[in-house]
Every structure is written in C-alpha cells, then in structure tokens.
Design goal:
single chain, 319 residues, alpha+beta, 11 strands, 24% strand, binds (3R)-3-hydroxy-3-methyl-5-(phosphonooxy)pentanoic acid
Length: 319
C-alpha cells in the first residue's frame, strides 16, 4: 500500500529565548541535519495505529493516554480536518533530533505528522506552512504550557525567522544572511524540560517584575542588534552579542554548571561567541566558529564532556 512521508527539521534559538515569551523578539534557525520523519499508510485493520520505533512503542490511538504527545498531534489534526473518524491508518514517526535538548524535537515531530497526514489524506489546506505551524502550536501548548510560538514557526517554515509574539498575529520575518555562519551545537547530556524552566522563570518574573523586565528589554535590544549584524555579515559582532545574551540568560538563572563549562571551553578554544540555546538548565549550547577554528573548538567541547557536537552552517540558501 502507498506510503506518504513528510519531515521537519530541528531548530536552534540563536538569540532571545525566554524573553520571547514576554513579547521581545528572538531569532531561530532550522537545523536540517537532524529531522523528524513521519510516514502514513492505509491499513487493512480497523483503527489508527501509532508507531514510534525509536521509543519501542506501538499502540492504538483510541487507547492512548490523553496527554500522549503523538496521539495528541493526530487528534488535533483530526479536529482541524473536521474528520469525525479518521480512516484506518498506520502512522509511524522517527526522529534523529535529541529529545529534551532544546532542538525542537517535539515541534518537529508534530509538524512532520501533520504534514504527512495532510498529504496522505489530500487535505492541501492543512499542509500549508501556516496551518502546520498553527496546529503544531496547539500541540506545543500541551507540552510547554505557554510557548512563545517560535519553535513551531521555525520548524514549519524551515527558514531562519525573526519572531515577535504578539496579538492577534505573531510577527514573523525572514532575513538575509550575507556571510555564512558556522555553529557548533554541543549537548550537555543533561535533559531539561522546557515547561519546568519556563514556569520557573515566570515565577521569578512575578516575584521581581522590575528586574526581569529589564533583563528581557536587554535581550530584545541584543536580538535587534543581532539581526542587523547578521544581515551585514559582521561575524565578530554577532559573537559578542551571543556572549552578552548569555550573561542575561545566566542572570535569569537558566544557565547551569555544565552549560557554563562548555561555553567557557568553546570561547577558550577560539569560538567567536557562545551561549545556551533553548530553555537552558541543560540541553544544548551553541558556539559560533570560523572554518579554521571548527575542529579545535569541537575537540575541546568533546574533551570538556559534550555528549555530541553537531555542526550547522547557516546560509541564505539553506543546506
Ligand atoms: O527548549 P526549547 O528549544 O523548546 O526552547 C524554548 C524556548 C523558550 O523561549 C524558553 C520558550 C518558548 O516557548 O519560546
């Protein structure tokens, strides 16, 4: 029987995480080397079968827990498609994106499943980038509580985005990258749940709004400056802004000893800039490097305890 496949990339936040939840801008880019892939096929057996081989799980949609993320994606799709009952299907999802590491694994899984279902069932409208992004956002709400919307946007559009959370519609801009930017993405190996970190920052903000509003304003200023420097291709300045952004993330209490260790290691080995990426308290850090420094910084990161180091080049024509 014919199978339909769709994929979505991982992502990193270059600038502005956390502050983006409070209406300040942020910049995120896709990481195309790691992806979630969904496959949909007609089934001869009644019902919708969900298969997640990476997790060693196969189960019926009708028997899945209410807060099961995979089942939730399929249910969100089914409501959006106004399908009272889905046809008999098998949906398989695989992913090379590390889980709970700030690389957008949940959003990519959702976007890939929604796209594959829309294609397979020939519901073109739900396969459009904007709809994939909106439906992925609904799923992210279950996983994250109060997501800013940046993760679903970048994985659905698969383009670098300058993003501002606002009503009634988020502001989403793409921008040009005049000099290729090479990032190393190093995993601390410490799993961190975005929902918990975002919730903790919210409590701290509620306790001391003056302090946190000032930090968020500074992050917003850095993001606006970073957009200008990226468009102008001024790599050293971009690196400085990463270091500055990291100082504010530390002040927000979302850094960790493991992240700080990898960040100072990368800078010590010659990276132009380094910071945590995503929710923090674990997960991944990113380092901006030149082609010449890449190997030195990579091996320093591995010696300092990084579990994995990915390399991603950001250009106007994404590779
Ligand atoms: O941990 P991640 O990669 O899902 O990133 C979360 C980014 C935050 O700004 C902390 C939250 C959000 O929803 O934007």
């Amino acid at each position: 029987m014919a199978k339909t496949e769709a994929t979505a990339p991982g992502k990193i936040i270059l600038f502005g995480e956390h502050a983006v939840v409070y209406g300040r801008p942020a910049i995120a880019v896709p990481v195309t080397q790691v992806r979630a892939t969904a496959e949909v096929e007609d089934s001869a057996i009644k019902g919708v079968r969900l298969h997640a081989p990476d997790l060693g799980r196969e189960y019926w949609l009708s028997e899945a827990e209410e807060n099961d993320p995979f089942a939730y994606v399929v249910r969100v799709f089914s409501v959006a498609a106004s399908l009272g009952t889905l046809p008999d299907l098998k949906v398989t999802v695989r992913s090379t994106i590390p889980i709970a590491g700030g690389l957008g694994s949940g959003a990519a899984m959702a976007a890939a499943v929604i796209r594959a279902l829309a294609k397979h069932l020939d519901i073109t409208e739900l396969g459009a980038n904007q709809r994939v992004s909106e439906l992925t956002y609904q799923v992210e709400t279950l996983l994250h509580g109060t997501p800013s919307g940046i993760d679903n946007t970048v994985v659905a559009y698969e383009k670098p985005v300058f993003f501002i959370r606002q009503r009634p519609h988020n502001r989403i801009e793409t921008f040009s990258i005049s000099q290729p930017l090479r990032f190393l993405i190093a995993d601390t190996g410490v799993e961190s749940e975005t929902k918990l970190v975002v919730g903790d920052v919210r409590r701290r903000w509620q306790k001391d709004p003056g302090k946190y509003e000032k930090i968020f304003d500074n992050c917003g200023r850095i993001v606006n400056a970073a957009k200008v420097e990226i468009e102008g291709g001024r790599i050293k300045e971009i690196g400085h802004l990463m270091i500055e952004n990291q100082a504010y993330l530390k002040e927000m209490t979302v850094s960790s000893p493991e992240l700080e260790r990898l960040i100072s290691t990368a800078l010590g080995a010659g990276a132009l800039g380094a910071k945590l990426s995503g929710a923090g308290r674990g997960g991944n850090m990113i380092a901006l490097v030149t082609d010449l420094q890449e190997e030195k910084v990579r091996s320093a990161l591995l010696s300092a305890g990084a579990q994995r180091v990915l390399s991603s080049v950001l250009t106007n024509v994404l590779t």
